# Entry
Amino acid sequence: MEQTDLLEILTWIDPAELSYQEWISVGMGLHQAGYTAQDWEDWSRRDGARYHPGECARKWNSFHGSGTPVTAGTIVQMARERGWQPPRIECGFELGWGDTIGAGGDQVVVDHAWLEGREVTEPDHWDPVKELTTYLETLFEAGENVGYVTESWEKEGKFLPTKGCWDRTAGELIEALSRCGGDIGSVLGDCQNEAGAWIRFNPLDGNGCKNENVTEFRYALVESDSMPIEEQNAVIRALELPVACLVHSGGKSLHAIVRVEAGSYEEYRKRVDYLYEVCRKNGLDIDRQNRNPSRLSRMPGVLRKGHKQFLVDTNLGKASWNEWVEWIESVNDDLPDPESMASVWDELPPLAPPLIDGVLRQGHKMLLAGPSKAGKSYALIELCIAIAEGRNWLGFPCARGKVLYVNLELDRPSCLHRFRDVYDALHWPPKSLSNIVVWNLRGRSVPMDKLAPKLIRRALKENYIAVVIDPIYKVITGDENSADQMAAFCNQFDKVCTELGCAVIYCHHHSKGSQGGKKSMDRASGSGVFARDPDALLDLIELPVGEDLRKQEENNAVCAACTQALERAGKLREVSRDDLCSQRAAVAACEELMPGWTGAAAEQARRAAGSQTAWRVEGTLREFPKFPPVNLWFSFPVHRTDESGALADIDPEETAPSWQKNFKKRRDPEAKKEDRKASIETAFEACGMGEEVTLEELAEYLGVTEKTARNRLKEHGGFWVDGGKIGRKRERREEERPRRF
# Structure
């Protein structure tokens, strides 16, 4: 905050109205914010009765660092309580770190132009004992201590209360009142007619009457003496305040004892601030000196200057604090009004343009679901790049625009390198890198209800057409299996969509167990809300690849590598098409026509093809017709559509009929051994993905124990195991000696 701003705010605070501690807090706040003792001194001069030259400077030098310092926020809050409001700008308020989007409205309920005063008259048949008994029974439990004052002292023509009594329970007082024969003074002590009597509305611990002696922060006092009592009565009732007791003070105000039902003093202060702010906005000017929970209020059943202090009503308005707050917030909600179809039939609003053609519109939500090792994060990075460049993603054309990728899982270097790796693997020139913005939040993520306003605040001016959040388990709030809690969680995505006008895309994992026999909407882990909330659900499920198909893919990969090498060397025309379809013939042609050719690229292509996994994408769409399943190969680090159609006839293993799933074909031991070797190769490549492979990861991929994985590595013979790390023996440096199995 600028220095001039804080000094301007101080003009709203009169030091003469502050307690000593509040005056000290202002000084501490100025000190912490970098102001000078002279600033505090100049402001303090406004209190001519208590100002002493040089006192501010002496106090200033005693303000040292604290673990919980008083900050400028304390001064801002004091000013707010006295009517100061942050300046508005054309686009609204700048959001703070903890602000919630869409909360509140202006909380104005009362239209004073149409408000009619509601008369309050003294009762003709007045029963003081009954009134006080009703008051006690309404506010207190029988065993709770009640603070009250009947004695007073005079100062400058005003009668002020003493500390009074606090050692009797509500039950004791009610019993004594029932036997007093109508003489309240015989129970509580006689009060002076000019002064009346007072009572504390929150229970005490019996040891004093200060804030620290309050045992339950149950009620707050709403009092205004700056407007006629008839208007006070009308506004209190129009606001539906949860009033437990409404008492006429015998003077010019009503005392409303309002339920705030706070669990702590800190919560009490926040709720009272909220209550007073709502009252202020609705024209009820509150005496803010009544904020303390130990505050005295007027006691019904006694006389004050010949006028009755009496109970006007009990249990007004809403039944509880929470019910009242919900009502206040809903009265001024920002929900649109219902509209007749007849009014829009001839001029329907245009549909949002597609973001992913045939799948998702701009401003809508999409969930990508899949199991571990499906490459979901890579798929989302591919999508970011496709949107940035205006290219295809999984075969679907994408609109071109700016995209924000919210990285919650990877460290910053790994995340940034992944984007470059995917660009390289796709062989796309990075023409539009400025369209990709990455927000790295690993180790700094917060629940989605807290992240959403922070995200919106940063993204408002950037014109993103998509925000990608990866993964959502890092920001889930509540129980994943609870429908209502997950509905509230998913609503945060709606807020981002609405406030930014962009699509929100996120990924989630499958539940445990086999998935092939389930519908795509039922595979995502947790509540079904995950699958039913987004406008588009894309689900990945793995396809089992047989040995013949895998060898065919390896053959095609080697042939493609050889073809590229021959083309670069200008020798492609010298090889027949038939030879280019056989890896053995293609390799032989390269060796013959290109002396010195090592075949490293072909071997690398073969290994990559052997380690790739097959996947099927199914869609459940709200805005578009269902598309045919898309079959993919995940060849690290990118997904490629199956152009040959080789995967079209493959079904997930779990979808086979039960008699087929239970039928086991006998196989010879050598074939099983070869399968285990192949599975080790596949697992090693899949777990590596360019990084170090561990025994734990390999065992997890294979679905076996680490002991079993170690035995299979030993059987394979081509790998070393050193502690928990794994590598190929030919990749091992000569000076390193592998540990024995």
Observations:
- The domain at 128-331 is CATH 3.90.920 (DNA primase, PRIM domain).
- The radius of gyration is 38 Å.
- The longest strand covers residues 254-262.
- The chain has five domains: 3-81, 128-331, 354-543, 544-610, 669-731.
